Request: fold
Amino acid sequence: MKYTTLFIFIVLISIPGQIVQANKTPMDSASMEMAIALLHESDLSRGNVSGIEWDIDIESKSKGKTQRNSLRVLVKGTNALAIYQSPIKVKGRKLLMKDRNMWFIKPGLSKPVPISPRQKLLGGASNGDIASTNYAGDYTIKSFTKDQFNNEPCFLYDLKAKNKKVTYDRIRYWVSKKRKIGLKAEFFTLSGKMFKTAFFEYDHTIAVNGEERPFVSKMIILNAMVKTDKTIMAYHNIKIKKISPSSFNLNLLVR
Reply:
């Protein structure tokens, strides 16, 4: 099987809402501190906590074909391990994302297969990067404005990548002012072209630092280049737990 086909399994949104003209927010120090804090909080509702495990069902539609896969996913900080559960032909395969590097691991292979930056822009690999985006950690706030999405008051962030390790150079990100969760994101390549659009739903809740907060239940990812391509990620069985660093040890995973 070609590696680009395998990428459709990678884990780590469907109608755009009404967008109204944005109102500029002054970029003074107090406003910037508020914007940064809100961005950090929005990340907590998508998995950027001390340790988390979940199951994800993925349905991907591309070129008239539909693929369905289920994965068990472990996440801690910027590290993520996806273990294929179904269909049976891919069960046991693994994908490791560590410090923005990515590897594919298959039973029977003596060495992991590294996924190049170019390959990360293809197929499901780009969707995996969208699912695991660390907005507060990997991006700088160039500007933020008052806006609305689906009639909900938001801040619209214009984010710029801090370095070239991340897949997307720029992101436009709508964050709910009241609920402190990301609702929509547009992802741009280095050339300035919009590549993907993501929509987020939050029907789960988790406890973070003793406080209940909404947690992502579904992501719908649309391809701006190929209008018919669509990926839906549904999250289940979410558990906050301690995850050992050894879970992301590449040498141990290929044994």
The domain at 18-253 is CATH 2.50.20.10 (outer membrane lipoprotein receptor (LolB), chain A).
